Amino acid sequence: MTRKTVNDFHPEVLRLFDRYVHGDASRRDFLLGAAKYAALSGVSATTLLQALSPKFAEAQQIKPDDARLHAEYVEYPSPKGNGKLRGYLVKPAKASGKLPTVLVVHENRGLNPHIEDITRRIALDNFIAFAPDALFTVGGYPGDEDKARELFQTLDQTKTLEDFVTAADILKKHPEGNGKVGVVGFCYGGGISNALATRIPDLGAAVPFYGRPAETKEVSKIKAPLLIHFAENDERINAAWPEYEAALKAAKVNYQAYLYPGTQHGFNNDTTPRFDEAAAKLAWSRTISFFNQHLRG
């Protein structure tokens, strides 16, 4: 079966799907809005939604039991957050010396199989990677993307941010780590990556993928170098970039920003048709090089 790409969908369907994914439209809103475009294609709106939804098994790059890695779920107290956090900790099975660490922050569906796969990919590049699940205190990732989005809307985001601050501190103190922590996040996680850069003075590096910017009044607190990835067709996120960039320049923050032509929000997520292989490969190589530059030595 040929894998579908964004070229197989009307731009308005993609916009509707983006609104649906981010909680700005209900499933019913998507189906009603997409109906006329579905009819033109000779399919149902439900079929369009299914085609755009994640296919985790098909996209998996690294098996959970890969012998090159040691992976486990761990729990830690988080007094300033939700009381306790749980996440997926992955490290190389064999390592020489202490390794740099990377905090992985998921999208707005919690710790799903895609983010676990991303965490394993990072560990294979010789990092200790930790991906907390923001949904842990409300039952954890439920195995269903719709239910996950619904649960996400019930979170106290102030406490959830504190959980991620705690997670970074855990990595900084990890006995097999070198004391340097980077963070990478996607969509919601990109926004958390920007926010953590304002909260953690000694953060080693931050790499937000198409995430909300840090609050302008907090930008002067950023000491970490930033590598910021944007999709070209992502009005919701890109509209805030001019103000954010001006604040970064005013604060003399060390940052690099890249916009990937022709891409949609979520272009790095290889479980959906919004995935752009060339852009994702380039953005990922830049990300790993950035972490190697700033977290090693």
Protein architecture, described:
The chain has 297 residues and is α/β, with parallel strands linked by helices. It folds into 2 domains: 45 residues, no CATH class; 238 residues, Rossmann fold (3-Layer(aba) Sandwich). It is 40% helix and 22% strand. It has an 8-stranded mixed beta sheet, sandwiched between helices. Strand 1 and strand 2 form a beta hairpin. Helix 2 crosses helix 3. The protein is globular, with a radius of gyration of 19 Å. The termini are far apart. The mean pLDDT is 94.
Total number of helices: 11
* CATH architecture level-2 label of the largest domain: 3-Layer(aba) Sandwich
Task: Walk across the major sheet and give the strand order.
Answer: 1-2-4-3-5-6-7-8
Low-pLDDT windows of residues: none
CATH superfamily membership of the largest domain? Alpha/Beta hydrolase fold, catalytic domain
Distance between the termini: 46 Å
CATH class of the largest domain: Alpha Beta
Which bin fits the share of residues in helices?
Answer: 40-55%
Strand content: 15-25%
Compute the number of strand runs: 8
Number of domains: 2
Instruction: Indicate the CATH topology of the largest domain.
Output: Rossmann fold
Cα-atom radius of gyration? 19 Å
Average pLDDT over all residues: 94
Helix-strand category: alpha/beta
Shape: globular
* Helix/strand order, N-terminal first: HHHHEEEHEHHEHEEHHEH
Largest sheet: 8 strands, mixed
